[in-house]
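Notebook, bench 3.
Goal today: get a predicted structure for HTH arsR-type domain-containing protein from Caldiarchaeum subterraneum so we can plan the truncation constructs. The sequence was checked against the plasmid map this morning, with no discrepancies at the termini. Length recorded as 88 residues. Pasting the sequence as submitted so the record is complete.
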Amino acid sequence: MINPRAYLTSVKNVRKGLETRSKIITVLEEGECSAIEISRKTGLPLHVVRHHLKRLTHDKIVEKRGRGRGVRWRLTGAGQASIEEAVG
């Protein structure tokens, strides 16, 4: 199932990307995680997770906290409402 928050305003939304971002968002709905944890929980390669986290950050759907190896990712709440309104 495609999560409405997976739709981005900055890129063309193709089904595979939507599905991938939906998986990442589903994991982050449970709480903040590192990119490695997201990769393990979703089964997605780490480079794919990092690519989509960058896209999700650009649209302010996720944000990172910390630096270096301690970086944790979380949903912002800010971009989510506008994305849901645009899709819904």
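The beta strands are 62-65, 72-75. The longest strand covers residues 62-65.
Flagging this for group meeting.
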